[in-house]
Amino acid sequence: MSSTSTAAAARTAVAPLTTEDAELLVAAARTAAEQALRGVTTSVTVLDAGGHPPSWTDG
């Protein structure tokens, strides 16, 4: 495999999260948790770095 095809294979369609992205996600999770404590119906989905539910990982 050439270095060009190796580099292409390593690319992803989704950009890595920035610190700002992560902070926004944490803030949203905290808001949802606070609302749940107040009796608001809340739904939370947890995914691993590959976008899979943790119970479905190969690792």
Main features:
2 helices; 46% helix; mainly alpha; 59 residues; flat
In short:
With 59 residues, the chain is mostly helical. Helices cover 46% and strands 0% of the residues.
Summed over residues and divided by their number, the pLDDT gives a mean of 77
As a percent range, the share of strand residues is under 5%
Order of helices and strands: HH
Decide which structural class fits the backbone. mainly alpha
Give an overview of the whole structure.
The protein has 59 residues and is mainly α. It is 46% helix and 0% strand. The chain has two helices and no strands.
Topology:
Elements: H1 3-10, H2 19-37
